Amino acid sequence: MPKLWNETIEEHRRAVREAVLKVTAALVAEQGLRGVTMSRIAEGTGIGRATLYKYFSDVESILAAWHERRIAGHLEELAALRDGPGSPGTRLTAVLDAYAGIQRRRHGHDPASGAALHRGPHVAHAERRLLRFLGDLLAEGVAAGEVRDDMAPEELAAYCLHALGAAGGLPSEAAARTLVRVTVDGLRPARRA
Amino acid sequence: MPKLWNETIEEHRRAVREAVLKVTAALVAEQGLRGVTMSRIAEGTGIGRATLYKYFSDVESILAAWHERRIAGHLEELAALRDGPGSPGTRLTAVLDAYAGIQRRRHGHDPASGAALHRGPHVAHAERRLLRFLGDLLAEGVAAGEVRDDMAPEELAAYCLHALGAAGGLPSEAAARTLVRVTVDGLRPARRA
């Protein structure tokens, strides 16, 4: 049960929102996107349905809020790896390994509802941020002689994200890591044939 | 003007269909997907609107028929390159160069209508065929020592198609060819780091 009766209305609202998003995350993890309904959220939070509808007009807007937070969490996770120790190449592999894992886990969702969520503007925004920061990391890699210089870093970043989209169809984390190795091998300075 | 009055009804129908798809292709090339309307097709073919509606219930079904044929044409083009001269690696690069060009030209279409077309079952079918034949070509490449053997050929095929999806955002054919080089470099037998 969330602590609903806080000192201020603002805190109260935030607590309700947190409780809703927490229960939503649990429902998605257990039953997939289709398992999330207003009734189950009301039940899981202990918030009455009437109150719930004052906060969110429908289940789609709850899923959108949950997804936006999830995407933001992924970006933070990837940014932490980018800022970690090691050469640009090492950090790039760490970021791409994590991204491939995210892509692979995404695949479990119901494709139709998942596609609807992914058309949201927050996804396009997150992808642009990710392309930019991967591009910066790749530019560092070029400067360090670890990454090929015959293609613009931001174009190489797009190559990485597209290539790792293939992680969605892979059967294991090990296969996803191999996909990252394949992708990263494509980034290495061109060798003489 | 198409030759509409042939010996048999079947030939006549085929001629109408051909004329419609030919005019549709020209309209898409000139004005994009949104430029295709029943009126313009009627005008371009010289077929009355009433007759046109007996063949196709709406412009969406005309676009679907046009797209299905276009995709089939692309598959034939790629299969011819696969069956061309040279080592598996040479033929693979030729196939991927052509595929990247197709992806790049696709980008000119209106994204929303384009996405609707691409949800059609014929696209999924064509993608499966393409994955299968690229997988076969990659397996030949593995046998010839030109392609890495630490990932299944069909998974490498998925990597290729995903990676070349990035061609859609590239500014030139030259950039698309570089993307193919990057992608193919990822396929080479693993080198010691």
Task: Give your account of this protein's structure.
The structure is a homodimer of 193-residue chains. Chain A has 193 residues and is mainly α. Chain A folds into 2 domains: 9-57, Arc Repressor Mutant, subunit A (Orthogonal Bundle), CATH 1.10.10; 60-187, Orthogonal Bundle (Tetracycline Repressor, domain 2), CATH 1.10.357. In chain A, 72% of the residues lie in helices and 0% in strands. The first copy, chain A, contains 9 helices and no strands. Chain A has helices at 9-31, 38-45, 49-55, 59-82, 88-106, 111-118, 121-143, 153-164, 173-187. The radius of gyration of chain A is 20 Å and the shape is elongated. The A-B interface holds A 148, 150-151, 155-156, 158-159, 161-166, 169-170, 175, 178-179, 181-188, 190-191 and B 148, 150-151, 155-156, 158-159, 161-166, 169-170, 175, 178-179, 181-188, 190-191.
The stretches of 5 or more residues of chain A where confidence is low (pLDDT under 50) are none
Task: Supply Rg of chain A.
Answer: 20 Å
CATH topology title of the largest domain in chain A: Tetracycline Repressor, domain 2
Question: So what's the oligomer here?
Answer: homodimer
Count the domains of chain A.
2
What would CATH call the homologous superfamily of the largest domain in chain A?
Tetracycline Repressor, domain 2
Quote the beta fraction of chain A. under 5%
Structural class of chain A: mainly alpha
Residue share in helix of chain A: over 70%
Count of individual helical segments of chain A: 9
Strand segment count of chain A:
0
- What is the 3D shape of chain A? elongated
Report how far the terminal alpha carbons of chain A are from each other: 64 Å
The CATH architecture of the largest domain in chain A can be named as: Orthogonal Bundle
Average pLDDT over all residues of chain A: 89
Biggest protein-protein interface? A-B, 28 and 28 residues
Characterize the largest beta sheet of chain A: strand count, sense, and whether it forms a barrel.
Answer: none
Q: Helices and strands of chain A, in N-to-C order?
A: HHHHHHHHH
Q: What is the CATH C level class of the largest domain in chain A, in words?
A: Mainly Alpha
